[in-house]
Design brief:
- This protein is mostly beta strands.
- The chain has helices at residues 2-22, 310-319; strands spanning 26-33, 36-40, 52-59, 65-74, 81-85, 94-98, 107-108, 113-119, 128-136, 150-153, 162-167, 171-174, 178-183, 189-191, 197-200, 205-208, 212-216, 229-235, 241-250, 257-261, 267-270, 279-280, 285-291, 300-308.
- The protein has a five-stranded mixed sheet, with no helix packed on it. The chain has a five-stranded mixed sheet with strand order 16-18-23-20-21, with no helix packed on it. Strands 2-9-4-7 form a four-stranded antiparallel sheet, with no helix packed on it.
- The structure holds 2-acetamido-2-deoxy-beta-D-glucopyranose (2 copies).
- One 2-acetamido-2-deoxy-beta-D-glucopyranose (NAG) binds at residues 36-38, 132.
């Protein structure tokens, strides 16, 4: 009984403390101009305050874009977030919300404004983050970053420059090992292929090329195995897009899933027993990540992919 009432007392004290600090919001941030610089969360690296709501808006010269490269990143997972906005911090410009302890890849804005917003809850903090930002001229592709277990060769990222990737021993490179910075649409430059990934030699997946083909989960149409972690990269020529059409789909709801990167929204999570609608890529690549847990197995998925050429789209537009 005594212990029980003790708990109740401390629970009450805790609740009071929480509600007292709840009204306190720590604001910080600001507007940043200039060719380059760094942003650190308040108190970095000794921990950011609770109840933080800090917004940084980076403004580049018109026609330039902004690239941010993370140098350090640690936020209390699932409670504290760094939200990225491709423009001013309005919901319409929201891109992604970062949390946890993995260093995120570099991000490039599509126009001359980019915003970051740190929000933390009312308990527990972590080191925080440090990010380097830089204005990109229209002739620069920016640093595309290094994938885990990967090595990047090359330090120049302007139109015409080539860079190369390899993987450390025990890992296979999926995707293209060489990237070229090309002048894409009006006044921008971009890499011709996505950054490759380094896949453990014994992990399933692979790189799919060619105008069409089929991707299926391991053992399809028999049951997939437990604890699977497969990654496939589908690449088409620069300027083309890829459509992925599912013909079969059976997975343990929520626990086994297929994640698709490279379309709109940037990441799609699929699970369950219904055949999902087709997925169309934004650019010339799609990445599929298939993950299963340690029990329950089903048939998995099978999908047909097909490259769509820009020229064909253009002709259709002319006819109609
Ligand atoms: C900005 O760029 C200049 C020239 O490349 C460099 O010397 C300087 O250290 C950079 N500033 C920051 C904050 O990294
Ligand atoms: C943070 O501040 C912005 C503007 O000052 C506000 O719109 C937003 O709702 C706040 N976010 C949180 C989580 O309090």
């Amino acid at each position: 009984m005594e212990i029980k009432s003790g708990f109740t007392f401390w629970n009450l004290v805790f609740l009071l403390m929480v509600s007292c600090v709840k009204g306190f919001i720590y604001t910080c941030g600001g507007t940043l101009k200039g060719l380059n610089g760094t942003i650190e969360s308040p108190g970095f690296p000794y921990g950011y305050p609770n109840g933080a709501n800090c917004t940084w808006v980076i403004i580049a010269e018109e026609r330039n874009r902004i690239q941010i490269v993370f140098q350090s990143f640690a936020l209390e997972e699932e409670y504290d977030y760094l939200s990225l906005y491709d423009g001013h911090p309005h919901p319409a410009n929201f891109r992604t919300r970062l949390t946890g302890f993995h260093l995120p890849p570099p991000v490039t804005s599509t126009k001359s404004v980019f915003s970051l917003r740190l929000t933390s809850d009312f308990a527990v903090s972590a080191h925080g983050f440090k990010v380097y930002y830089e204005e990109l001229q229209s002739s620069s592709c920016g640093n595309p970053g290094v994938p885990p277990k990967g090595i990047l060769y090359g330090q120049r990222f302007d139109v015409g420059d080539k860079i190369r990737y390899s993987c450390v021993t025990g890992y296979i490179l999926d995707g293209h090992s060489q990237l070229t910075c090309i002048a894409s649409s009006v006044n921008t430059a971009s890499w011709d292929f996505p950054v490759p990934i380094c896949r453990a030699e014994d992990a399933c997946g692979g790189t799919m090329r060619g105008s069409s083909g089929i991707i299926s989960s391991p053992n399809f149409p028999n049951e997939y195995h437990n604890n699977a972690d497969c990654t496939w990269t589908i690449v088409a020529e620069p300027g083309d897009t890829i459509s992925l059409i599912f013909t079969d789909f059976q997975m343990e709801e929520k626990y086994d899933y297929l994640e698709i990167e490279g379309s709109e929204p940037p990441t799609i999570g699929l699970s369950g027993m219904n055949i999902p609608p087709p997925v169309i890529s934004n650019k010339n690549w799609l990445r599929l990540h298939f993950v299963t847990d340690s029990n329950h197995r089903y048939r998995g998925f099978s999908a047909h992919y097909q490259g769509t050429f820009k020229e064909i789209n253009f002709n259709w537009a002319c006819i109609s």
